[in-house]
Design goal:
This protein has no helices and 9 strands. By secondary structure, it is mostly beta strands. Strands 2-6-5-4-8-9-3 form a 7-stranded antiparallel sheet, with no helix packed on it. The protein has a two-stranded antiparallel sheet with strand order 1-7. β8 and β9 form a beta hairpin. The chain starts with 8 loop residues before the first strand and ends with a strand.
Length: 79
């Protein structure tokens, strides 16, 4: 074992080329970064997704889809 599960957690997902379906959402969102993972609540701050609680890191280039309630409002690859 190289590290613990806690070592995989992050408080921020940096995003590249964030795209919105309409206008940018300034309030609470949820992010889905894994096909089988649970949606994580948080918000966008300076082009990064900041979860309400630390979440598992994702690989660079992996898609991060942003939702407002159950509607897709944006997305970007992780940096």
């Amino acid at each position: 074992t190289v590290g613990s599960k806690a070592d995989l957690l992050t408080g921020q997902l940096d995003l590249d080329d964030l795209a919105w379906t309409a206008s940018a959402v300034a309030g609470p969102l949820t992010a889905q970064a894994s096909a089988h993972g649970r949606p994580v609540p948080g918000q966008i701050v300076d082009g990064a997704f900041v979860p309400d609680e630390p979440m598992r890191r994702v690989a660079p280039g992996q898609s991060v889809v942003l939702y407002e309630d159950d509607e897709v409002v944006g997305g970007a690859p992780a940096r």
